[in-house]
Amino acid sequence: MRTITKLLSILLLFYSVAYAGVIATATPKEVELGEMVTYSLSISGEDITRPNIRRLCDSDVISTSSQTSMQITNGDISKNYILSYKFVPQKSCVINPVEVEIDGKTESSNTVEVKVVPVSGAKDLDFVLKLQSSKEELFVGEEFDLTLTFKQRSDAEAVDNEFTPPELKGFWIKSESQPNRYQESKYTITEIVYTLAPQRAGKLKIPKAQMRIASRGSRASSWGDWIPTIKWKTYFSNELEFDVKPLPSGVNLVGDFSIKAFVDKSEIKANEAIDLTLEVEGAGNLEDIKSFKPDIKDVAVFDEKISIEGKKLTQKLAFVADRDFVIPSFSLRYFDLKTKEIKEIFTKEIKINVLNQKTKEEIKVQKEPIQEVAATTQKAEQDGVTLAFVFIGGLIFGVILMLFKPHSLAKKQKSGTIKEPRVLLVKLLPFRDDKDVAEIVDVLERNIYSGEKIEVDKKTLREVLKRYEIG
Fold first, then answer.
1. Pick the residue with more confidence: 15 or 165?
2. What pLDDT does residue 400 have?
3. Fewer CB atoms inside 10 Å of the end CB: C or N, the chain?
4. Domains held by the chain: number
């Protein structure tokens, strides 16, 4: 018996020496779910570095405080610090030792165990927070409703509250309803509905929502009087977990959709722009739809950024051509949840009639002089032909251009409509084989269709307009 007593004494002595620098405690050590715990570090020393503690038991630290005291023993002055951290544990846990630098040395605290027990009398709680899903099985991109319900007993008084919504990582948030409040029996109920869609396959979890409620209370003072106080308690909702299924191979859309496309006109002049609007409506992951921009031979196509409002997707496209063409059918493939089949929907082809269009022979003849002069200039450089010959070639090039483009200088000055970016773009498109024109066209397209604000090189623009007699 004496041996056991001595052994315990030695262990207690070792414990006090080992943790003399920093001692950790938790008050209370056992709590109901939602109640607050205060974790304290009692530190003895002259100079300390306070530890940066933000989470305890996988829960955020709500508030911190500190106290400093001094003690004189036989003329020696010693300091004692008490650092306190308040948090609300959601499950039982063990807080590992915390390292603190004291007077240039690193000391470690003892471990502390916190026990969390279920709330007693759950059916008659003053406050209840709950999460419900409209669906149990989900595919990637499939929409569902998440309903958050908060119940408050009519006779329960709340001085203040702080709501922390659940983290919705891995989900698209399509919409969030306005709070709907109504009375049911002895509870006032508030509901908020989120429309969500999972972003990936696999296990996805929606963690607990939290509601901190401040209610009035009282405590006895040292004189026996009752002092009014404010007590905070946190109420947690349940968690939800989903096993999200992948979509069948070959599709990345799920839901039920309709698609249509329409143009502002079906007959245009050569090199005049025609605008098309494409709309997709329905319930599903519209965010995964890419641009519908088609590739049409000898037709310049420009696409604006897709916009989504609610359950409607809109994209605008512009087409510019110098002869008749056909806007092809647009299609959309998706997985239908009702039939569990892959479906494909289409728009109709749209024929565009171009007035005063140029024939292939005219376009070919128009390009030949430029190609011939370029070849002549290159040969002149290779053979070392004199500068005078190149000059003569330039004169010939100018004469040819005058023959094939009989536009007067007076017409060039006729109006200032080319200041309009869209008009200027249309007039430059036939000459985009020219490097200078291509650069200007690129800037205009980005400004018009991507919303950028890039300055056009005015000197180069003047030279291009003069070169091709554009007015």
1. 165
2. 41
3. N
4. 4
Distances (CA, A) of 463 to 404, 440, 468: 19, 12, 9
Query: How does pLDDT run across 313-367, given as a tens digit for each residue?
Result: 999 999 999 889 999 999 999 999 889 899 999 999 999 999 877 655 554 554 4
For residue 434, give the amino acid letter: D
Q: What is the pLDDT of residues 261-318, one digit of tens each?
A: 999 999 988 888 999 999 999 988 898 899 999 999 989 999 999 999 988 999 999 9
**Other beta carbons less than 10 A from residue 42's beta carbon:** 17
- Residue 44 has a CB neighbour count (10 Å cut-off) of 17
Determine, yes or no, domain membership for 9.
no
Euclidean distance between CA atoms 58 and 37, whole angstroms: 13
Q: Give the pLDDT confidence score for residue 13 in this predicted structure.
A: 37
Domain containing 169: what range? Answer: 122-245
| Contact yes or no for 188/228 (Cβ under 8 A) | no
More confident residue, 241 or 432: 241
**Residue 465: helix, strand or coil by DSSP?**
helix
In contact, 32 and 117? CB cutoff 8 Å: yes
The runs of H, that is alpha helices, within 317-386 are 360-383
94 and 161: one domain? no
Quote the CA–CA distance of 33 and 121 in Å, as a whole number: 12
- Judge if 263 and 239 occupy the same domain: no
Partners of 212 in the β-ladder: 162, 234
360 within 8 A of 274, measured Cβ to Cβ: no
Closest-CA residue to 185 (of 153, 221, 231, 219): 153
Given 57, 84, 117, the domain boundary residue is 117
Burial (Cβ within 10 Å: 0-12, 13-18, ≥19) of residue 425:
buried
Query: Distances in Å between the alpha carbon of 31 and those of 20, 24, 28, 112, 117?
Result: 28, 18, 7, 14, 6
What are residue 45's DSSP bridge partners? Answer: none
Residues 165 and 197 grouped into a single domain: yes
Q: Which of 87-96, 289-298, 426-435 has the lowest mean pLDDT?
A: 426-435
Same domain, 54 and 127: no
Task: For 352-384, give one letter per residue: b (16+ CB within 10 A) or e.
Answer: bebeebbeeeeeeeeeebeeebeebbeeeeeee
